[in-house]
Amino acid sequence: MSSRPVVDVLRRHPRAAAIGCGSSMLHQTCEALVPVAIGAVVDGAVRTGDTRSIVVSIAAVLVLFAVLTSAGTFAFWTIDRAEFAEAHFLRTAVARAVLREPAVLRERQVGEALSIATSDTRHAAESLALVSWGTAGCFGMLVSAVVLLRIDLALGLGLLVCVPVLVLGLQALAPRLEKQMHTRQRSAGLAAAVAADLLNGLRPLRGFGGVPEAVRRYHLASRTSRDAAVQAATGTSVVVGVSTLATGAVLVATAAVAGTFVQQGRLDVGEFVTVVGMASFLADPVRNVSSCVQQLAVSRASARRVASILEVPASAPALPTATATATATVRGVRTVPGEVLGVVTTDTATADAVTAALAAGAGTLVEPAQTHLLGDTLADALDSGPAPAGRGVALALALDAAAAPDDLDTPLTDGGGNYSGGQRQRIGLARALAADREVLVLRDPTTALDAVTEDRVAAGIRRLRAGTGTTVFVTTSPLLLARCDRVVLLTGDGRHRTGSHAELLTDPDYASAVTR
After folding, report:
1. Are 163 and 247 in contact (CB under 8 A)?
2. From the CB of residue 100, how many other CB atoms can be counted at a distance below 10 Å?
3. Could you tell me if 298 and 325 lie in one domain?
4. pLDDT tens-digit profile of 412-455?
5. 315-352 pLDDT tens trace
6. Phi-psi region of 195 (alpha: psi -120 to 50; beta: other; left: phi over 0)
7. Which of 310, 333, 363 is the last residue of a domain?
8. Residue 204 is inside which H or E element, if any?
9. Domain containing 50 — which CATH number?
10. Smallest Cα–Cα separation from 438: which of 358, 507, 318, 377?
């Protein structure tokens, strides 16, 4: 997104924005003409008592209302459809940005990112409707002014002066309100982030007695969010109050002046009805414009927060020469289906680079050490999609995943939090194995397992992957490396060496890395 994210929203839906604006402007024009039609009925039909004129006038008013209703309905349908599509686009774009570039979350907590992906994307998409209704409201006021100018020049000029001053005055309040809304949205996201962290760490917090401190921190974040919301609500109330007072002032002043003109003979009865009806109608577009100004401040603030995620550039692995050399070495290793390859690195940056390089290959699946279980039940978490039904369950049992067939309908809490770290790792391994990819890269897959279970899992992986594809362990676990056909040692200074686990134990760097 550019520096003007709301403009980007409109550019993605030019047809819907144009049709929505046009239809809503027609709707407002018809609404503005209703007082004119009623005044004409009073002048040409009721006052004369001509039956035919009354019937024709009523039919004309009914046609006017039919056009008014149809235009308004079509405008709402068009804008709402585009708004839902834009909100979906922004949500998926935010999710894609987070998945593509983990640096997006580097300065944000998960709860804040979730708030941006849900609440802020919806508010940003609402700018489509706000621009349409705001434009239609301004056009309705313009039509009213033209009608009043034709009736009486003084009334028309008065409205042409008062209404722009009113709208500009309301717009002057928008930057302050937008800043308050931005603060409210951000503080709400931070409060949600604290709550999510508290729930995720509830078990260890209870273990070392940290719950009171965690609750205190959440109370602080919640209080900050509440204060920001109250401040934003106060700003909103000021805008609404000013709008209501201004609308009432315009209505009363117009009716008073029109009544005076009737007494002076400058207006007849029909024109008086038109003027009073037009003054009443003006309350609606003025209120719409002021509401759109207020809500557009929220949309701009939300759109900037969405853009802050979408504008994070993808970080290509710009690596030091030694790390790049190590990555190229891993890419150049010739493997055969069924081979188990171990990769040992002496620093985290090299391990990250190797994993990223291997992940770029076609037909490759990378299973990270931190496992996230998706779905409502354990069976859902083990379902890898393309794999045959039940394969994930069988593999879970083969890996000793502590999942018996009678508990596959066990509900999952958020991310599988009702399972231990070791259980989640084994379930994630079963899910990855069930996908049956040509190349399977496992990054520290047994960090949460005890040594006995780790050895069983290593044997199970080797057995299940035998003859089906290449398996790469990026790890320093000696139990996993002992099961590998070959092991590649990569050091931060660019040195690499290949051999079996036993052979490489004579290398000081290797021994230092794998010795526990």
Report:
1. no
2. 12
3. no
4. 776 676 777 777 888 888 888 777 788 888 988 888 888 888 88
5. 544 333 333 333 444 444 466 667 889 999 888 888 87
6. alpha
7. 310
8. helix 202-208
9. 1.20.1560.10
10. 358
Contacts of 505 (CB under 8 A, 6+ apart): 511, 514
User: Are residue 384 and residue 408 in the same domain, yes or no?
Assistant: yes
Say how many domains are in the chain.
2
Would 315 be classed as within a structural domain?
no
Instruction: For residue 378, tell me if it sits in a domain.
Output: yes
Strands ordered across the beta sheet of 496-499: 364-367, 439-443, 470-474, 340-345, 486-490, 496-499
- Rounded to whole angstroms, the Cα distance separating 326 from 489 reads 9
Domain boundary among 287, 310, 333: 310
**First and final CA of the chain: distance in angstroms?**
48
- Give me 96's structure tokens: 């894609």
Helix (H, G, I), strand (E, B) or coil at 251: helix
Contact 426, 449 (CB under 8 A): yes
Structure tokens at 170: 């309301």
Report the C-alpha gap between 454 and 515 in whole angstroms. Answer: 16
SS3 category, 440: strand
Domain of 416?
321-514
Query: What is the spatial distance between Cα 445 and Cα 182, in angstroms, rounded to a whole number?
Result: 41
SS (H, E, C) 255-305: HHHHHHHHHCCCCCHHHHHHHHHHHHHHHHHHHHHHHHHHHHHHHHHHHHH
**Residue-wise pLDDT tens digits, 83-136:** 899 889 988 888 888 777 666 666 666 667 777 888 888 888 888 888 888 888
Q: Average pLDDT of 58-64?
A: 86
Report the C-alpha gap between 365 and 432 in whole angstroms: 7
Q: Based on the number of CB atoms within 10 Å of its own CB, is 282 exposed (0-12), middle (13-18) or buried (19 or more)?
A: buried
Cβ 28 vs Cβ 285: under 8 Å: yes
What is the spatial distance between Cα 32 and Cα 27, in angstroms, rounded to a whole number?
9
User: 319: burial class by Cβ within 10 Å (0-12, 13-18, 19+)?
Assistant: middle
For residues 302 and 393, membership in a common domain is answered with no
According to DSSP, the β-strands at 340-345 and 364-367 are unpaired
pLDDT at 232 over 50: yes
Q: Spell 70-82 as b/e; 16+ CB within 10 A means b.
A: ebbebbbebbeeb
CATH code for the domain of 379: 3.40.50.300
Total Cβ atoms within 10 A of residue 16: 20
Q: Which uninterrupted H or E stretch holds 394? A: helix 391-398
**The pair of three-digit structure tokens given for residue 99, joined into one six-digit string:** 């998945």
Tell how far CA 200 is from the center of its chain: 22
Task: Find the angle CA(229)-CA(231)-CA(235) to the nearest 5 degrees.
Answer: 115
What the block records as the tokens of 421 is: 């770290």
Residue 503: both structure tokens together: 């052979």
